[in-house]
UniProtKB/TrEMBL annotation:
This is CDP-diacylglycerol--glycerol-3-phosphate 3-phosphatidyltransferase. Belongs to the CDP-alcohol phosphatidyltransferase class-I family. It catalyses: a CDP-1,2-diacyl-sn-glycerol + sn-glycerol 3-phosphate = a 1,2-diacyl-sn-glycero-3-phospho-(1'-sn-glycero-3'-phosphate) + CMP + H(+). Its EC number is 2.7.8.5. Its main location: membrane. It comes from Reyranella soli. Gene3D superfamilies: 1.20.120.1760.
Length: 185
């Protein structure tokens, strides 16, 4: 059960309290540590999938835990960014879109799993994840970087939100098709 991919996934969950703690320390180096920990945690998402496929270590535990780890990491960061005002006003909408889609897709995946229907991750969803992770990493840096860098983070969070809507619609369309096929339960 505890192979390298699963350990990487667990490390992503373990990083969450460290990202949060560093984020709330005095500004400067702590913001850099928080953003760096977040970025490293994001990179482990790619590596755990790579190692699982490359070394045939795909497990039920990993398939269960990997998306949860991703969602916990992103949700914790977005909540912090909204709470401290980095994402405020209209930018809170981008965070809500991202969080709502994650909940929707999780529910759909669970429903479709009961029907033994797999929903592969699309290339567009991977781009969404990249934009989202890049945006959050930048936004975690806050006032430790020039304002223009923060503006890039805000643009990226909106790029992620738009891609989130598109990919969320794709997943929803797939789910609704399978719901309609089954008739009453």
């Amino acid at each position: 059960m505890l192979n390298l991919p699963n350990l990487l996934t667990l490390s992503r969950i373990a990083a969450i309290p460290l990202v949060v703690a560093c984020f709330w320390l005095d500004h400067g180096w702590a913001q850099w540590v928080s953003a760096s920990l977040f970025a490293v945690a994001c990179i482990t998402d790619w590596f755990d999938g790579y190692f699982a496929r490359r070394y045939h270590q795909i497990s039920r535990f990993g398939r269960f835990l990997d998306p949860i780890a991703d969602k916990l990491l992103v949700a914790a960061a977005l909540v912090m960014l909204v709470n401290n005002g980095t994402l405020s006003g209209i930018h809170v909408l981008a965070a809500l879109i991202i969080l709502a889609r994650e909940i929707l897709v999780s529910g759909l995946r669970e429903f479709l799993a009961e029907l033994r229907v797999g929903v592969p991750v699309s290339q567009l969803a991977k781009w969404k994840t990249g934009a989202q992770m890049g945006a959050i990493t930048i936004l975690l840096l806050g006032d430790a970087v020039p304002t223009i860098i923060g503006q890039i983070g805000l643009v990226l969070i909106w790029v992620a939100a738009v891609l989130t809507l598109i990919t969320g619609y794709d997943y929803l369309r797939t789910g609704l098709r399978h719901m309609a096929e089954g008739g009453p339960t």
